[in-house]
Structure formats: structure tokens, C-alpha cells
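The record is kept unedited without comment:

——
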Amino acid sequence: MMPRSFFFSILPAVALLVFGLGCEASAPSDETADASPEPEVTNGDAAAPGDAASSAAPLQITMLDVGQGDAVLLQSPEGQTILYDGGPRRADVLSQLRALEIEQIDMIIASHPHEDHIGGLPAVIEAYQPRFIIDSGMAHTTRTYERYLDAIEAAGSQLLDPDRQTIEFGPVDIEIVPPPNDEDLGLNDNSVGLLLTYGTFKASFYGDAEHDQFAWLLANHPDLFPDVQVHKASHHASRNGDVREAIDQLRPQVVLAGIGADNRYGHPHDEAMLLYDSVGAEVYRTDTHGTIRISARPDGTFDVEPTADVDALIAARCININAAAPDELVRITNVGPATAQGIADARPFSRLDDLTRVDGLAEASVQAIRDQGLACAE
């Protein structure tokens, strides 16, 4: 495993412009950002005909259903992609991204190194080899964290400091919400956050920030709490997450919460739900709404599409090792023409692990097939 300190010595805080994804340092403002207009959720037909802002390509924000954890895919109107957190390993975010036909990930931002936020990132990093990665800079003593660093080293991604800066995400500005960089506060309270701006549309993300980090941000970066249309619930709608002062300033109309069904923490907590209700926010939860997609336009209007059935997409696109022809099987990683014929000859398989019966497919090769998320045994 490469030492944590190595990555932070790779790249100083300089302006970047690669593949249309600019990363430009910006000085924090001493003034509170202008409030955006009253948020409006539409079904796509509320804008006046011919309104250029309303007809502009949307910013897509997709909160993936990863159970108890967070993973949010950001797609700019010009096609750039950022993945904010990767959920737990068991959620197999890579398969979900493949099912959504995501061909590249330009940047990954990991809010903090808990398993429910970075467990799925090693497979994503290996598959997409993103150019840039930003994380909190806080090390963790887990095998999950080691796998995450190993994947970054293998991919050659540049790991950037989580300083306050603005990323030019096509026509969308993404301001990095910095962590306090205080080890005494713990991992949650050193989360990397995001503030997205697309015209008059704004969305806020603060990872798993708890009361101490919010107090630090409100004292040191008060302009990072403008009116927003969409807010990701901090720490999975826990009573230890969002604070009243922040929510009273953000005043979101929609709150997105990454929550696992029947989770052992009791999320969402009543205190958080009452806090969101106090500003009239509607809460969309992955445990009840599944994957949630928001399409936002620069005039501030946006659509919410809950219950996106990613599992159905995955099932529809999988290559069934019990039925696919050899020329289809070769799309699976580590499967060439000879191995494809070997799979066809060795059928049936009750699960992917049974592929070790095929000559040329050792356990490591089968693990890579599982990580690719393309093959299934039906």
C-alpha cells in the first residue's frame, strides 16, 4: 500500500483543465452568497415555451440506492461525470454505473473514509481510472481504506488536497466544502462537501458532517450555506447530522437521504425529519424510493424521479453465462475465445463462483468478473 503522504505531494494547488473538467482555486468570499429564487419542482412543463434556460440540457444528480451508505453520480450538461462517494462494497456501485451506461468517471470525491462511503470505490477506480480524486486526507486503519489507496496507486489517479476551490464542471460550478482537518474531531466531522451551482439552481452535500463540523463551517465559511433547492441529508438523516442553523439558511425544498432498510442505527431519526419538515422540505429516501434522479435546469426548476429501478437495468444488460453465445461471452473481462468456448462446454453454472471449473479462470479472474458487474448466472 502506498503511504498516504505520497499522494498529497504529487500535485500542488494549481489550476487544472483536463477533458473539460477545470479545477480552479478560488478565494473564499467574506459575503454571504446571494439567495437563489424560491425553488420550484416541476414535471417539465411549467416553463414558458421558448425559455432558453428551461430548455437547456439538465444537470443530472443521481443518488444511487446503496443501502446504508452514500453514492451520488453527478453528470454535467456537457457530459463530464463526478462520483461523490461509492457506497459500501456489497452495494456494487460499479454494476450500477455500468447499468446506467456510464462510460467514464472524470473525478471521484470521497467525503470521508468510512466503509459505507468508500467500500465500492476500489472497483470503480480500477474500472474507470479517473484522472482526479479528492478526499478528506484523513487516514483510516481498515482493509477497505488500504484497498482504496491501492486502487488509486494502480490507476495513477492524482489525489488532490480538499482545499476550498471551484471545479468547473462544464457549465456547472462545484465548490469544494473543506474539512476542518482536525483529527480530534473524528472522520465524520472531517467530511469533504460540495456546493453545486447551475445558473440559479443550487444543491448542497456535506458528507457525514456532524455538529462540530457544521459549527466550524458556519464560523469560518458562512457563505457556503446559501439557499438551495436540493440538499443531501448529512449522516443519513441522523440526529447527529444536520443542524438547525444550517438548514434554516439552506432552506432546501428537497432532501435526499441515503438510508438502508431496517438499518441498525434507526435512521432516519425523528429529530432530523422534523428539522427538514420545519423548512417545508420533502424528503426522498433510498430505503423507500430506491435510486433517485434529479434533473436540474439553470433557471432553478428541477424534476425528481424516484424509484429508478437500477436492479432491473442490471438484470436486463447482464451476460448470462448459462445462455450467451461465445461471441457474447468474450465481452466479459478475462474471457477470450477459448475461455468462452470452455464456459459454453461447462454449463450449467448455478453462480459466478462456479466459473473456476473452466480452464483459465482462477479465483482472481472470477473476482475480476464479479467486479466488472457484466456477467450473471440465471
Notes: The longest helix spans residues 143-155. DSSP finds 14 helices and 20 strands in the chain. The radius of gyration is 21 Å. Residues 1-19, 23-50 have pLDDT under 50 and may be disordered.
